[in-house]
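Here is one such protein, fold included:

. . .
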Amino acid sequence: MKKLKLGIVLSMMISPKKTLQDTIDTTNWYYSLIVSGLAFGLFFLQTGLDLFKTGQKNFISVIITALIGLGYGIFVIPLLGILIWLIFKVFKSNKSITWAISTICLSYSGALIYGLVGLVFSLVLKWNTAIAFGVTGILWAIRPMVLSIKEMSNDKLAPSIIITTLVCVFVLVSWSFIGQI
C-alpha cells in the first residue's frame, strides 16, 4: 500500500499541471476520495458551525451537515468525474475512469486546505467561515479542474471551461440547497 502524501494535495493546489503530468498515474484512486471527502466534510462542517453560531441550527445539525459533506465528497464528486469521463469517452479520450475520478476529486485539494484553515478561524476566532474559506476553497478547484478536463478532451479549452463552470455551479447551488435543510 502506498503512503498517503500531503505533498500531492499541496502540489495539486499550487501546480496542478505538473501534478497531473507527474503524480496522478501513481496515486491510488481512493486517496483522491479521501481528499474530496475531507474537503467537503470540512466545508459543510463550517456551514453547520456558522448556522449553529447564529442560532439557526442545533449542534446535532452541525454533525449531520458535516457527514453530508463527507458523503458528498466521497460519492457526488466522483460521480461528477464519471459523468465527465463518459462525455469525453464519446470524443475518444484516452484517460481511464480512475484517472478521471482521481483528478476531479483531487481538484478539491485547495478546498481541503481552506477547510482546515477555515475551521481553525471558526473555532479559535469564532468567525463565520463557510463563505470566506469554504466557497473560496471550492473556487480554487476551478484551475485544476479545467486542466484535468482539458487533458480528457485532448487539449480542447472551450469544453473544459464550459464543463468546469457547470460543475462549479452545480456544487455551489447544491451546497446552498443542502445548507437550507
Observations:
- The chain is about 80% helix and 0% strand.
- Residues 59-90 form the longest helix (32 residues).
- The radius of gyration is 16 Å.
- The mean pLDDT is 90.
